[in-house]
Amino acid sequence: MTNGSMTKAELVEEVSRVSDLTKKHSEVIVDTVFKGIIDALHRGEKIELEVEKTYQMKIIKLSPAERKIGLSIRALKDADIRTDWESYASSQGDGTATLGDHFKNR
């Protein structure tokens, strides 16, 4: 890597290293991200890449035969919210509490 730039091969190698994925799967990810960026630019959307910024995403579709991967930040957040809600709901008993019950112990 020179001046903060990487070749595609270096990027694939780095994705493979940090994710414990095969180089083939890492290349699919790199190709998919670049295709998404190019498609967004063609639609006139603004693209902003930040150095050393990471994002957690959920893989929602993986198709090595088509060389495609579907990634979603929203799906991961939705799953986290759903887990939080289910945890909260199960801790609240049978669900028959009232507002009065809530303030009784305060």
Question: How does this structure look, described?
Answer:
With 106 residues, the protein is mainly α. The chain has one domain. It contains four helices and two strands. The chain has helices spanning 8-19, 23-42, 73-91, 99-104; strands spanning 58-63, 68-72. The chain has a two-stranded antiparallel ribbon with strand order 1-2. A hairpin with a 4-residue loop joins strand 1 (58-63) and strand 2 (68-72). It is elongated and about 65 Å long. The N and C termini lie far apart (59 Å). The model has no long low-confidence stretch (mean pLDDT 76).
The tally of beta strands, per DSSP, is 2
Estimate percent helicity. Answer: 40-55%
> Could you say which overall geometry the principal axes of the C-alpha atoms support?
elongated
The helix-and-strand class reads mainly alpha
N- to C-terminal distance = 59 Å
* Domain tally: 1
Number of helices in the DSSP assignment: 4
* Rg over CA atoms: 21 Å
Low-confidence stretches: none
Overall mean pLDDT stands at: 76
Strand content: 5-15%
Strand order of the largest sheet: 1-2
Taken in chain order, the helices and strands follow as HHEEHH
The main β sheet shows up as:
2 strands, antiparallel
Give a concise summary.
The protein is mainly α. It is 54% helix and 10% strand.
Layout of strands and helices, then pairs:
Elements lengths: L7 H12 L3 H20 L15 E6 L4 E5 H19 L7 H6 L2
Antiparallel strand pairs: 1-2
Helix pairs in contact: 1-2
List keywords for this structure.
single chain, 106 residues, mainly alpha, two-stranded antiparallel ribbon, 54% helix
